[in-house]
Amino acid sequence: MSTSELVVMAAAIAAELARREPTESASLCMRDAETLARVTDLHESALAGMVARVDASGEARRWGYPSVRSWLRSGLGMREARAKERVALARQRHRLPEATGRLARGDLSYGYAATIAAAVTHLDDQDCAAAETVLLDLVGQGFSAGKVAAFGHRITDLIAERDGTESPDPDTRRGYETSWIESTRSLDGGRYIKGWLNTEDAAIFDGVLAPLAKPTGADDARTLPQRTAAALTGVLSAGHRATKVTVICDLDTLTGGTTPARLPDGTPIPAEQARRIALNAAITPLLLGRGHLPLYLGRSVRLATPAQRHVLEVLNPTCAVQGCEVPGTLCEVDHVTGWALHDGPTDIDNLTLTCAFHNRYKAAHPDSVHITRGPDGRYTYRIQPANGPTTPPPATDPWEGPANDPPRLRPQARPRGRSRRPRPEWARSREPAG
Prior knowledge:
Layout: H1 3-19, H2 26-57, H3 59-62, H4 68-75, H5 80-92, H6 97-105, H7 110-119, H8 125-140, H9 145-163, H10 170-173, E1 180-185, E2 191-196, H11 199-212, H12 224-239, H13 251-254, E3 261-262, E4 268-269, H14 271-279, H15 306-315, E5 332-335, H16 339-342, E6 351-354, H17 356-364, E7 369-373, E8 379-383, H18 425-429
Antiparallel strand pairs: 1-2, 3-4, 5-6, 7-8
Region (Disordered): 367-434
Protein name: HNH nuclease domain-containing protein
Pfam family, one: DUF222
């Protein structure tokens, strides 16, 4: 059997297994869970080989993804940490023959293999071989994956010390001339903030926030960090006129319903909190037509109106091209059916957001773009590879059959009796995309 046929069989077995309820016996569940975990590690070994082949060939870029990691995140729905981990293992597997072999035989778990791959990423081939031996020996002694990762970092430090290339901690390596701030999102929707400000920026920070972070009275029990965070939030929400937060909710939610609101990126907002926000916010009504799609706004103008763009930013948090992560607020408005060449109207259901690069790419290569539209009115563009297939690839799940995407965007026939005088070359060259 070919590899593809085996993948289809494995997918079918996994789908059937996922639909079944666990057995009533806890001991059997424990045994089956251990077996399934080992099988999952074997699947990860096969996946690493496939990801390595895709990475080496540049195939992901031919399908419109900027990188293999972007393909894993957007195309396969992996979290950033998991995608990064799998790419590291795929790229290091040829330098880790023993670890790769043990993973393929089921003698090494995926967690250990990924940890070792991450530890040797910045080592040369000679040091990589020595580090692999040391780390595998630690695995054999029963150390956890976290301990092995810690030893891996220590090995990197020892090699840097041996070669006289040891570097300071990551924060120090950033330097002290340019300010920087790191912001990472927590699982509950909050954010962790870490940073450093140079002398000038620190003076601005202190001058603006220090007066606002003072205690409001004798009964103010907040700590200084809490007051500083409140001062920063106050400046961003009230003192900075460029700040705008869009909360999407139904009329029923505003009038006392329990349906949660949401941010443009899908983050849910409790109904009560949405109503509190609405008390101090500007409310913009969005009328919907059949199928809950925004109504037509006409073709009287070429460029989208501010109201239309606001609707598009709500519908499209990022560029419409699959895998492109440019925020919608930084994108251009694109006519799905071209306004200049194909008489596409400037109606809300013929508009979407694309980054500047993909807007011009679609205008220059209309036959290389597949367009789908979801039930919420959102368009998705898929870039086909040059000289590639004329139909989309089959669905990821083999039991679902081929994906039902609509045909490619093609020029529409112009009604009879209408003709257009050819534009001079200088006019065609200045015609905007879309």
